[in-house]
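Technical appendix A lists one of the benchmark inputs used to test multi-chain prediction within the project. The record comprises four sequence entries:
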Amino acid sequence: MTTLFAAAGAFVRISARTQYALRAVTELAAAPEGPVPAERIAAAQGIPRRFLDNILLQLRRAGLIRSQRGPEGGYWLARDAAAITLADVIAVVEGWPSPDEYPGVAEPLADVWAALREHEERLLTEITFAQIVSL
Amino acid sequence: MTTLFAAAGAFVRISARTQYALRAVTELAAAPEGPVPAERIAAAQGIPRRFLDNILLQLRRAGLIRSQRGPEGGYWLARDAAAITLADVIAVVEGWPSPDEYPGVAEPLADVWAALREHEERLLTEITFAQIVSL
DNA sequence: ACATAGCCGACTTATTAAGTAGGAAATAGG
DNA sequence: CCTATTTCCTACTTAATAAGTCGGCTATGT
């Protein structure tokens, strides 16, 4: 029972959009100096091209990446890979779910989720893309 | 940015079904000896009655709770609240998502999720409903 | 017998995620 | 200045999953 549980994870779910965002940023972190066209990222990571456009736009608006149009254009990191954490990217891409209610005797459950989330946050704000690329 | 992140959590998402299941079991753990009718649980926790039936059935089939039909019937825990963990309930109710692919340079990201899930599992298999009720 | 309560599969609806469309606006090279 | 390239942008469609509903059957205590 708990074996299956360990294998898959129950609460930690990462949306495709978030995964794509993280993988795209990782590509940029791994690339040599200069703009990387969306097409290249899409091919390297197997991300639907149009969808990727959409995500990159969001990341640029949030100030995590920069861009240049036209031939020889593309995207690059707005700051050093060592200064961008996983949490930075996730915070941009994910929506913010509103906290749930736990009536009566079930109220302590909320504390458990809070603990899980706190741990999650600590981990994700510690890990930078410089680290990801160097692993 | 990270403040908002902390407040809401990004990956830790709990489905309504799972929440209801946990809250229902908590009610049973908190109740005195004897069967508790679904109606009572639904009222105490604000869970849609028909939906709850559905969930309780699943928990019973999994052997976590027992039941008795007819007047004075209801549900109760199959074993002591100290011997049922949050993970036990979640394992019954949640489906098992298949692990994702992380091509090329993005591969190390998978290790991060693995770490998150491992922590999640440890926490959830440690906490019993006896503890929840006593908090 | 009758009222209470669980049992059960299938069905519908709501919500969110995932992906698409169609073009406009830059920009480098010839 | 013309053309190919590539980003920019809003809105839309489709797919998937979660949430909740329905109708009726079965067991049981009084």
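Residues 35, 37-39, 53-54, 56-57, 60, 67-75 of chain B lie near DNA strand C (CB under 10 Å from a C1'). The first strand of chain B starts at residue 65 and ends at 68. Comparable benchmark entries are summarised in Table A2.
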